[in-house]
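Cross-posting from the modeling subforum.

Setting up a comparison between two proteins and wanted a second pair of eyes on the formatting. Protein 1 (sequence, then structure tokens):
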Amino acid sequence: MRHKNNFSDKNELGKKILSGYIVTIMLLASFVMMIPTALAADGEANSLKTHMFDPFDPETEVTTFGDGNGIVVNVTFDITDYTGDDPSYKVKVVAQDSGEWVWVTVNDSDVLGPAPWNEINEPDDGKYWGAFIIGQDATANGSGGQPSYLHLENGEDAQIIENFDGDGNNVTTIITAEYVGTIRGWVKTNAEPPVAIDNALIQIDDGGGVIASVLTNATGDYIFNENISEGTYDVIASKQDVFEPIVADGISVMTGQTSWSNFSVPINTDITITGYVKDRINHSVLRNAEIMVYKMGYFEGYFNNGPSQ
């Protein structure tokens, strides 16, 4: 089930920063196009890696991205064969299922803007940098200062293709769209005050069966932390010998967002407890025995069985 993504403030800020970078890189690319150059370099690119735009970590390669994520592309040439002073050029990103594609401009020069790799970039070092966005909106090549945006369905792969000198010896890598969110909540009794129920079983059902399960902790809380794909689910709470399964249906999960599903377990307090206490040796009835009462494993109180006769 597809949902329209609503970017968080953080994603909106990241998109604006990425757009600012694109404006600068497009101006640089336009300037380069005024100079007769050939897209040629000595040797071939020897690596093509992808990183998260925000937060940016050049040491960590990332190949799985969420809805609205900015993706940094890094193309590296063997510096011993690299001539330097080459212009900006473009790599191609192709959705594997739909065939939709976008161009991504990469550049080896200093970028005067908010590009996250500015602090580590050195001109003519054989490292080209660029960025684009994936998500569930319509595919669009970058223009007017906007970064390229590739539409990918949840779970769909995209191939990034680099062919700097046009000889067909491509360097490629694969990224995957994984649009996930979080489901969390608690399980407590409906008494006043509520009592947390630990070790309750929480299951996620996607309509075809249970796909994930956890137990509540000592405070009755549970969480499926950023590992549930976008969609609509039933959340089921149960605890053997304590309460029957309770179903919260139609819980919607959106990428990067948290959906809550809390369970208030009804406890029947209108009950009567009867019995007797005997000496286990001669089986005589014992009076004034202290009787302790526990409800669902939690101490509730005590009473005695009357005075001696």
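Protein 2 (same layout):
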Amino acid sequence: MTVTTMATALATAETVNFDDMKVGGLPPGWTATQTGRGSAKWAIEKDESAPSKPNVLKQSGQATFPVCFKNDTNIKDGFAQVKFKPISGKEDQAGGVIWRAKDSDNYYIARANALEGNVTIYHTIKGKRTEKKRTNMKVTSNQWHTLRVDFQDNRFTVTFDSHRMG
């Protein structure tokens, strides 16, 4: 699976982008890994199509569920948002936003998949992903999208390209 992800994590008034970071490396203070088998390959790369130029965080390896999250974030209630562009992949062309992550095997994720044409919310516990909700939505390959999750207590609202998940 290959996904280009330009993360803009918005929480406690923090915006994160990769524009001033070294190309070819990992963003400092982030965990780049995967849930399950395979080997996710995360690196900062230049992408002139990025909403915030010039850099993006790109996943180009093959893994069951590639994940990358900012360390030391613990937001009980709030929101997180990511801009991503699915670019290739035979099984999945997807991007997602993770919240309430404890580690690479325990987190919530909202994932938008171009090959399946849907947005799905999962809860991952001890590396096992359980689907909570799925909505069919058009997710276009090679196009930038915005995926946002608002969360408070045990309620989540997912918005994909300004469309609230039904």
